[in-house]
């Protein structure tokens, strides 16, 4: 069970053979991707004799209060950079985590990624392992589980309470819905981490504060929800990118509504002139990732959890400058609403 010793040793050999600086990238911040990234940073240092020539980059916005709580607690904002700051040399030795798509509109427009290492738990990968590329994609609940198994496979040991153990543990816990949408490997990985997790730090990450914007987004979504058949579509109106993570929280809440098997929550992101979409499905016959790409374009995707539930999202870039300047946001909202509801309800 888990990543076998041979795979771990292949990973060790691969990392030790990398020439030059290394970049670690996750394209959409959540606790699983953040935990994976900084545990990977520690893993690379372990394999390369403490080498610090590694940069961490992230796409999207770290706006969810729980993500910000973790980042603030461990000073992560000063230890990573937004993907928009990446230079050509940063793409050379690229490690892609919690994503396996060559094109991701959440980070880059018109640029295909060519990572040398891919660690992910999503389906529909664009990458295959070959000479010069290590690809580990498995159907587990969290990417943090895979990174922990690599750490253990190359002989890394947690000897005391560790911030990396906490990051991995909360990443597994949150991305599996509290160890519900997972397999045994995730549960066992979480259990192996717990002796090295400071329980007060863990409580602080889970008991995060909610701001007025969080409640405002939820209220807006409840008021605007449209429920037809087993599908529910709603939106939070015009928001800033820093509040975009509220969409996934709302989708997680609404998918539990009786009679609903597909939820789409969207918001018009005013500072990036784009539409962000979050989706959840409990319909095991629906390929959520394929449906989202067909409906909203290649910058969309989804993952199927071990329990059959699916989650996903996407980003639609729009030319909204004229509307924003002329203060006709309602027109833009109406057009997007019509487009999204048409795509979902004709499913």
Properties at a glance:
single chain, 347 residues, alpha/beta, inorganic pyrophosphatase (n-terminal core), Diaminopimelate Epimerase, Chain A, domain 1, six-stranded mixed sheet, 12 helices
Q: What report would you give on this structure?
A:
- The chain is of the alpha/beta class and 347 residues long.
- The chain folds into 2 domains: 5-206, inorganic pyrophosphatase (n-terminal core) (Alpha-Beta Complex); 212-345, Diaminopimelate Epimerase, Chain A, domain 1 (Roll).
- The protein is 38% helix and 19% strand.
- The chain is built from 12 helices and 12 strands.
- The chain has helices at 5-16, 31-47, 65-73, 143-153, 163-175, 184-193, 199-206, 212-224, 246-254, 288-296, 321-325, 329-345, and strands at 22-26, 54-58, 81-82, 94-97, 117-120, 134-137, 226-228, 231-239, 262-269, 274-281, 300-304, 310-317.
- A 6-stranded parallel beta sheet has the order 3-2-1-4-5-6, covered by helices on one side. The chain has a 6-stranded mixed beta sheet with strand order 7-8-9-10-12-11, with helices on both faces.
- α3 packs antiparallel against α7.
- The two termini are 39 Å apart.
- 43% of the residues are buried.
- Mean pLDDT is 90; it is low at 320-326.
- Count, helices: 12
Beta-strand share of residues: 15-25%
Q: What is the averaged pLDDT score? A: 90
Dominant shape? globular
As a whole number of angstroms, the C-alpha radius of gyration is 20 Å
What is the CATH superfamily of the largest domain? inorganic pyrophosphatase (n-terminal core)
Number of strands: 12
Give the second-level CATH assignment, the architecture of the largest domain.
Alpha-Beta Complex
């Amino acid at each position: 069970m888990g990543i076998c010793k041979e795979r771990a040793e292949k990973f060790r050999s691969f990392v030790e053979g990398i020439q030059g600086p290394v970049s670690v990238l996750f394209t959409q911040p959540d606790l699983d991707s953040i935990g994976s990234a900084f545990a990977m940073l520690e893993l690379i240092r372990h394999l390369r004799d403490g080498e610090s020539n590694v940069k961490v980059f992230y796409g999207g916005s770290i706006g969810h209060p729980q993500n910000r709580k973790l980042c603030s607690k461990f000073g992560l904002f000063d230890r990573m950079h937004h993907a928009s700051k990446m230079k050509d040399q940063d793409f050379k030795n690229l490690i892609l985590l919690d994503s396996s798509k060559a094109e991701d509109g959440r980070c880059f427009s018109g640029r295909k990624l060519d990572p040398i290492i891919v660690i992910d738990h999503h389906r529909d990968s664009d990458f295959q392992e070959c000479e010069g590329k290590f690809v580990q994609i498995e159907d587990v609940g969290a990417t943090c589980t895979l990174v922990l198994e690599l750490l253990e496979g190359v002989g890394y040991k947690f000897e005391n309470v560790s911030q990396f153990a906490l990051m991995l543990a909360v990443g597994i816990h949150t991305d599996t819905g509290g160890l519900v949408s997972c397999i045994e490997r995730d549960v066992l990985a979480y259990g192996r981490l717990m002796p090295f997790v400071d329980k007060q730090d863990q409580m602080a990450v889970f008991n995060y504060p909610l701001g007025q914007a969080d409640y405002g987004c939820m209220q807006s979504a409840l008021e605007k929800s449209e429920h037809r058949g087993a599908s529910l579509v709603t939106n939070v109106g015009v928001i800033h990118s820093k509040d975009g993570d509220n969409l996934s929280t709302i989708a997680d809440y609404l998918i539990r509504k009786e009679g609903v098997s597909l939820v789409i929550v969207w918001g018009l992101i005013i500072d990036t002139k784009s539409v962000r979409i979050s989706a959840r499905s409990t319909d095991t016959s629906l390929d959520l990732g394929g449906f989202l790409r067909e409906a909203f374009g290649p910058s969309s995707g989804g993952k199927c959890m071990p329990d059959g539930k699916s989650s996903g999202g996407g980003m639609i870039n729009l030319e909204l400058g004229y509307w924003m300047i002329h203060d006709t946001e309602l027109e833009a909202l109406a057009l997007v609403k019509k487009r999204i509801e048409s795509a979902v309800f004709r499913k």
